[in-house]
Amino acid sequence: MVEALGAVRRATSVSPDHAEGAALEVMLRPEDLRIEPAGEGVHATVISASYVGGQAMYQVRFGQEVLLAVGVIDRDARLPQAGETVGLRVAEHALRVF
User: Fold this and answer.
1) With b meaning 16 or more CB within 10 Å and e meaning fewer, what string describes 75-94?
2) CATH of the domain at 87
3) Predicted TM-score of the model (pTM)
4) 2, 6, 20, 91 — which has fewest CB within 10 A?
5) Overall number of domains in the chain
6) Each residue of 56-87: pLDDT tens digit?
7) What ranges make up the beta strands (E) of 37-95?
8) For residue 1, what pLDDT band results from cuts at 50, 70 and 90?
């Protein structure tokens, strides 16, 4: 099992060289991160949010990391502004372990 950004997923591609409980490197694609309302998922701070065609691109800070998230635009909702707190979730299939 691998935990990242509050999500726990079963990893099938972990090398047998990795001991249980050891740190691993994981990769998340920008489209695998979900921006949620504050209070849902883990807390992240918006650095920037902009429209890119039919999608929105977000730069968010989670702890010391800056992450990029891309998602489908909800035309009835406004984009969060820089400095706002949002929730961040990982899509079910998202974690890739190295």
Assistant:
1) eeeebbeeeeebbbbbeeeb
2) 2.40.50.140
3) 0.77
4) 20
5) 1
6) 999 999 988 899 999 887 777 788 999 999 99
7) 42-52, 55-62, 65-72, 85-90
8) low
